[in-house]
Amino acid sequence: MDGFTLAQEVLTELAEDGIERSEDPGEAETVVRERMLALGAQTLQLHLEKRKVGYAGASRPGACGERQRFVEYRPKTITTLLGDVTLRRAYYRCGSCKTTSVPYDERIGLGTGQVSPGLAKAAAVVGIQEPGQSHLDWPRLRGAAGNRVRQLWSRRCRRRTPPFSACRTPFQI
Predict the structure, then answer these.
(1) How large is the average pLDDT for residues 70-89?
(2) Predicted local distance difference test score (pLDDT) of residue 135
(3) Is the Cβ–Cβ distance between 19 and 31 less than 8 Å?
(4) CA angle at 42 for the pair 83 and 126, rounded to the nearest 5°
(5) 104 CB contacts (<8 Å, ≥6 apart)?
(6) Which of the four pLDDT bands, split at 50, 70 and 90, describes residue 165?
(7) What is the tens place of the pLDDT at every residue in 86-115?
(8) Are 70 and 94 in contact (CB under 8 A)?
(9) Mean pLDDT, the chain, as a whole number?
(10) N or C: which end of the chain has fewer CB within 10 A?
(11) Quick check: 90 and 158 in contact, CB under 8 A?
(12) What is the structure's pLDDT at 115?
């Protein structure tokens, strides 16, 4: 399917959902962007559901020198640049030392957080500012991250958790 056909289908779906096409480019842009992000998140979800992510066989070397055994696939919902998606990752446990691991998380840098590496990188770019700069350069970030970074930043500011504990920067778009 080409991009034009996909765009026509999105417009048809919006009309079927009762969403009128606006003559205001700003309003239309917001509606279409949100629909495309939702479509992107659904596409990413379908892509990831077909993968056995992190599976390294029935067992793998553990930190203690013994073997960790595959236990099951465990779900983890993360926020991406496109929206929330759920991964099912291989989970391993060592019978001797009781340590556990999730190789996929380690390999792609998920850590204990619930943010995709792409969104984390975009948020880091937002956090890096020139000394004395009084606002964030959202137009520069819009192509890569858009509202997803702003939502993450706002959520972190409300919780006052690192690395965004100094949340005095006003948003200017």
Answers:
(1) 91
(2) 56
(3) yes
(4) 20
(5) 53, 54, 87, 89, 90, 110
(6) very low
(7) 999 999 999 999 999 999 988 888 877 788
(8) no
(9) 76
(10) N
(11) no
(12) 83
Residue bearing tokens 């999730």? 102
Contact of 133 with 124, CB cutoff 8 Å: no
For residue 35, which of 22, 53, 59, 17 has the smallest C-alpha distance? 17
Which strand (E) or helix (H) includes residue 89?
strand 84-94
Burial (Cβ within 10 Å: 0-12, 13-18, ≥19) of residue 170: exposed
Lookup result for tokens 């819009």: 142
Distance CA 139, CA 11 (A): 26
Residues 89, 82: Cα–Cα separation, whole Å: 20
Binned at pLDDT 50, 70 and 90, residue 59 comes out as very high
Q: What is the largest CA-CA distance in the chain?
A: 66
Higher pLDDT, 132 or 126: 126
3-state helix, strand, coil in the chain (%, to 5): 45, 20, 40
Report the predicted TM-score, pTM, of the whole model to 2 decimal places.
0.64
Whats the size of the chain, residue-wise? Answer: 173
